[in-house]
Amino acid sequence: MHPDKKQVIPVMPEAIQNTDGSKKQDCETNAAKRFIDRLKATHPRQKFLICGDGLMSHQPLIEKVLDNNMHYIFVCKPGDHQYLLNG
Fold this sequence. Notes:
2 strands
């Protein structure tokens, strides 16, 4: 969204499911990575800001966002990232 723009792009959420043949249970992080890939493929020239909670504020998902030339705002709880907060 942008305060000067009237356009909104509705997006469908990515389901948490075992679609890759893995026996390990799927998780929100993997679903978010698939969502980011699909969003970029669907709207390759659009700029996106991805927002998320503390579950998303970890290196693999941050790298996925940056690899797709997107920006992010993720919550970072004090107990989650000792290196960042106590360094």
